[in-house]
Design a protein that fits this description.
Blueprint lengths: L22 H4 L20 H8 L11 H19 L12 H21 L3 H21 L12 H25 L5 H23 L2 H26 L21
Helix pairs in contact: 3-4, 3-5, 3-8, 4-5, 6-7, 7-8
GO molecular function: acetate transmembrane transporter activity
Protein name: Gpr1 family protein
Membrane topology: Multi-pass membrane protein
Amino acid sequence: MSDIEKNTSGMPSAGNTLTTINGAHAAQFPLGPDPGGVYPYTLGASAAQQQLYQGVTGLRKFANPAPLGLLSFASTTLVLSLINVSTRGVTTPNIVVGMALGVGGLAQLLAGMWEFAAGNTLGATAFSSYGGFWLSFASIYIPNSGILAAYDDTAELEHAVGFYLAVWFIFTFIMLIASLRSNYGLISLFFFLTLTFMFLMIGKFVENVKITQAGGGFGIVTAFIAYYCGAANLLTRESSYFLLPLIPVPNGKKD
């Protein structure tokens, strides 16, 4: 889930400077990261926010929380999706509870809080909300929560879970619309995640295992796209011998 903003020439523009930083530093920090990795790749962040991640003399320096959020989301989504497609005959999702609490839930929620601190609304909303999703999903399968035990009728339980998934389908579709001016990596991630929730939702409502498995298949695709986006955020000129492109949308987000 990551938003890259680059100049078409591949180099910082001398006339496009960060005016919100005082004059002593403005000339040193032109807006927009270049393909060489001067600025980190961040989820939905403006150029000014990306410079805050990078650090400016006299300002607090933030590490980029996007890799933590993306890779945590990818890992937990992959495990659950493998179960949804009945890989190796596994169909009971309880094994994902631990990951949903610690990785998909807590780690993503922390990433979202750091995105809030950096002023990145899209990244903060995505990571915090999906962190909440995983925490709430885990609570369904914790025996002491009593959620599953409250349903004596299997069909009623399936439909109730369908309502739960329908809400996340709507939310994810909104996130897809919000990402349309970012980059193709992020757009692809939300597109396939929307399909994932849609098929899982329908599978619960019609109680059709094949449709649920189709949702699991889209979830696997979503997980690997999230892995790619997370790696693209993590691999910078300073930390890696190569970079991964995310392909910004032409005439996309601008400051």
